[in-house]
Each structure stands twice: as structure tokens, then as C-alpha cells.
Design goal:
Helix content is 32%, strand content 27%. It is of the alpha+beta class and 165 residues long. It has two domains: 77 residues, SH3 type barrels (Roll); 65 residues. The strands form two sheets. Strands 4-3-2-1-5 form a five-stranded antiparallel sheet. The protein has a four-stranded antiparallel sheet with strand order 6-7-8-9, covered by helices on one side. It starts with 6 loop residues before the first helix and ends with a helix. It comes from Phytophthora nicotianae (Potato buckeye rot agent). This is AD domain-containing protein.
């Protein structure tokens, strides 16, 4: 358990804020305080990759190297809080979901074209799966694998799916 003068007890209120971690050798590092391990007092910081803050690395500072943690000073005030980073990440996730949906639609159309070109009868179901030969085989999103009990049909469908790559 954490002792009364542990780093966790002293600085846990700064979690999610821009901070400056003072190290035993007199240097310091800036970053957004992600967490402090309550058992070991190890510190996890989100540090910007470069000047443009385009991404972040996680830097773990072991407790025996930490002299103290201060709220962000002048040099680190341009760092966002953890809440702002979370919102930014959610925006990126929504756009990647839209991208994956459009990619899935495109693969579905390409598979339909390949099946038509090879004279394979198919139906698109309500769940966007593609049933081939009246249900003898099924290809489900993201259209990379086939469910089929007939080995010959399975092999042929796998060959057709390889044409999409």
C-alpha cells in the first residue's frame, strides 16, 4: 500500500493536467500526467512526439527517479489536458469508422462484380452478408472469409476473394 508521503497521495490531483516532473538528476520532463501507480509511485506521462504535437508517446518514470511533480509551467502550458486529448481521439475514431464503412461498401461492390463476372449467383442479405448459390456459402463483412460446408465450393470462393486483394 502507499505510504502517507507517497507521490500518489501528494500529486494524484494533478492527473490529467499538463505537468513538469522533476528528476533526481536535476533535469525535468514535461507531459500530461496520465497516472501514478498507487503501489509503486511510478509515473506515466503522455509526452508530445515533436514540435507540432501530432502524436504522443507514453513515458514511464520510475519512482526512485522522481524528485517531484509540479503543475505545468510556462514551457508546458501549450499541452492539452487529458480530457481535451480524449475528445480529439474520439473525433479521430469517428472519422476512421466512416472510412471503414466506405471501405466495406467498396469491398462489397467489388465482390459483387467478381461474382457476376464469374457467373456465380448471389444475394445480398439485410445484414450485408452475401449468400452464394442459394445459401451454400456465405461471405460476411469485411468480405475476407467464407463460411461453407462444401470444400470444393469453399476453395473456389477463397480463390475469388483473393482477386479482391
Amino acid at each position: 500500500m502507499a505510504s502517507e508521503n507517497s507521490l500518489f497521495d501528494q500529486c494524484s490531483a494533478l492527473i490529467g493536467e499538463s505537468t513538469r516532473v522533476l528528476l533526481q538528476d536535476g533535469t525535468y520532463t514535461h507531459g500530461v500526467l496520465y497516472c501514478i501507480d498507487p503501489e509503486t509511485d511510478h509515473v506515466a506521462l503522455l509526452c508530445p512526439l515533436g514540435q507540432d504535437n501530432s502524436g504522443y508517446n507514453v513515458k514511464i518514470v520510475l519512482a526512485h527517479h522522481v524528485r517531484g511533480i509540479e503543475k505545468g509551467l510556462q514551457e508546458s502550458t501549450d499541452l492539452p489536458t487529458l480530457g481535451a486529448l480524449k475528445k480529439e481521439l474520439e473525433k479521430g475514431r469517428n472519422s476512421s469508422l466512416e472510412d471503414s464503412t466506405s471501405i466495406q461498401r467498396r469491398r462489397q461492390q467489388q465482390l459483387g462484380q467478381v461474382l457476376t463476372k464469374n457467373f456465380v449467383p448471389f444475394d445480398v442479405e439485410a445484414d450485408d452478408s452475401i449468400r452464394v448459390f442459394g445459401g451454400a456459402a456465405t461471405v460476411r463483412p469485411p468480405y475476407r472469409s467464407v463460411e461453407c460446408a462444401n470444400e470444393q465450393l469453399l476453395r473456389r470462393m477463397q480463390q475469388l476473394l483473393e482477386q479482391l486483394s
